[in-house]
């Protein structure tokens, strides 16, 4: 059975991946790390630190997926990863308050330059919500700090699952009382969008070439198989008539 042609008029809501799609986690961590170095006289390779912290993200989530494993929120997983990195990067002298403050850098991630303006344009026409693996408290703090104008903050925490579990992708359809194909999943990650497609959502790829830094291997600017492909949120808003 073929997929019906995409019609933006059928959409009830747009749901967004957050880390890397809406916010620039890497530059934010590097900047805050440099401030910590200046305050404490530390010598740390903060780009490598940021990359290592993010690299632990998927393996940490995977450890919660097995049979009999308890679900753990992202704040806790981030702290577990952080504890393994402190001795590796010469940060073991940080006390508990400093470690907790550093872990909360994920609450203070800054948006990509187009994100807030683009979200406000999209919000003028559509309901917009996060659909992130980040826990609710993290996402709310981030939205307050970065000025992200969500109509609703949705998280895998609400079903105690992580993407690409279908329960996460189907959560907004249940809460908004609509069919999955009335939702548009917006993400900068092909695997996230493939998971959304498998659950029946429409998909929009947004290119974020600098997510992993200027020296990272190039990512496809226009991957095939999605309903929309955009250079940024402003381009996405234009394509959707917002």
Explain briefly what this protein structure is:
The protein is of the alpha/beta class. The protein has helices at 25-40, 46-55, 57-62, 74-85, 96-103, 115-123, 136-146, 166-176, 190-198, 233-239; strands at 13-16, 127-132, 152-155, 183-187, 202-206, 228-230.
Describe this structure in words.
By secondary structure, the chain is an alpha/beta fold. The protein folds into two domains: 9-24 and 109-239, 3-Layer(aba) Sandwich (Rossmann fold); 26-107, DNA polymerase, domain 1 (Orthogonal Bundle). The protein is built from ten helices and six strands. The chain has helices at 25-40, 46-55, 57-62, 74-85, 96-103, 115-123, 136-146, 166-176, 190-198, 233-239, and strands at residues 13-16, 127-132, 152-155, 183-187, 202-206, 228-230. It has a six-stranded parallel sheet with strand order 3-2-1-4-5-6, with helices on both faces. β2, α7 and β3 form a beta-alpha-beta unit. α1 (25-40) packs across α2. The two termini are 31 Å apart. The mean pLDDT is 95.
């Amino acid at each position: 059975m073929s997929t019906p042609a995409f019609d933006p008029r059928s959409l009830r809501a747009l749901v967004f991946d957050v880390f890397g799609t809406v916010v620039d986690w890497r530059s934010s961590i590097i900047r805050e790390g440099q401030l910590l170095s200046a305050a404490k006289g530390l010598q740390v390779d903060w780009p490598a630190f940021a990359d290592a912290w993010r690299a632990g993200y998927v393996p940490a989530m995977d450890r919660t997926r097995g049979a009999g494993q308890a679900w753990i929120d992202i704040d806790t997983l981030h702290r577990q990863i952080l504890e393994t990195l402190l001795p590796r990067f010469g940060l073991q002298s940080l006390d508990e308050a400093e470690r907790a403050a550093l872990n909360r850098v994920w609450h203070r991630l800054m948006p990509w330059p187009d994100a807030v303006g683009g979200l406000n344009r999209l919000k003028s026409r559509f309901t917009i919500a996060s659909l992130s693996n980040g826990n609710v408290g993290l996402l709310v703090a981030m939205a307050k700090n970065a000025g992200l104008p969500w109509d609703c903050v949705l998280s895998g925490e609400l079903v105690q699952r992580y993407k690409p579990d279908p329960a996460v992708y189907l959560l907004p359809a249940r809460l908004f009382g609509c069919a999955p194909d009335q939702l548009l999943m917006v993400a900068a990650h092909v695997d996230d969008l493939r998971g959304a497609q498998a659950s029946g959502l429409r998909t929009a790829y947004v290119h974020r070439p600098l997510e992993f830094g200027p020296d990272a291997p190039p990512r496809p600017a226009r991957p095939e198989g999605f309903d929309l492909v955009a250079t940024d949120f402003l381009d996405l808003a234009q394509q959707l008539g917002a």
